[in-house]
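Open question from group meeting: does this chain pack into something compact, or does most of it stay loose? Before anyone orders reagents, we agreed to write out a predicted structure and look at it together. Recording both the input and the output here so the notebook holds the full record.
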Amino acid sequence: MQPVNCPFGPGLVGIISGDLARYHEFNTSLLTLLVPKGTTWKWVRGNGIAANRNLVAKDLEPEHEWLWFMDDDHQFEPDILMKLLSRDKDIVQPLTVTRKPPFRAYAYYWNQEKGMY
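Structure tokens returned:
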């Protein structure tokens, strides 16, 4: 990660992976990622995706202004985090689609009658 001067405060980059990072493209992307000065990171490994995200969130400090989760099977441009932060939103969530055609979105809605998503 490359710390840069920018209008955004520091945050925490949470990296979630299996026992080993799976793709060298991810590691290359991470090495060139531009982050606000003071940003820290935590890499959590294991098969419990939700538990791993909770472990990262436990490391949030008062000086952290944001939290960004990144899984180890992604490739991204160095300025992706700066673009996300510039949206000035409380939450920015990607649209996730299935791996095979017709690439349907994983989208859930609250069903009041059933009391579930």
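Observations to bring back to the group:
The CA atoms of residues 14 and 69 lie 5 Å apart.
The helical segments are 24-32, 49-57, 80-85.
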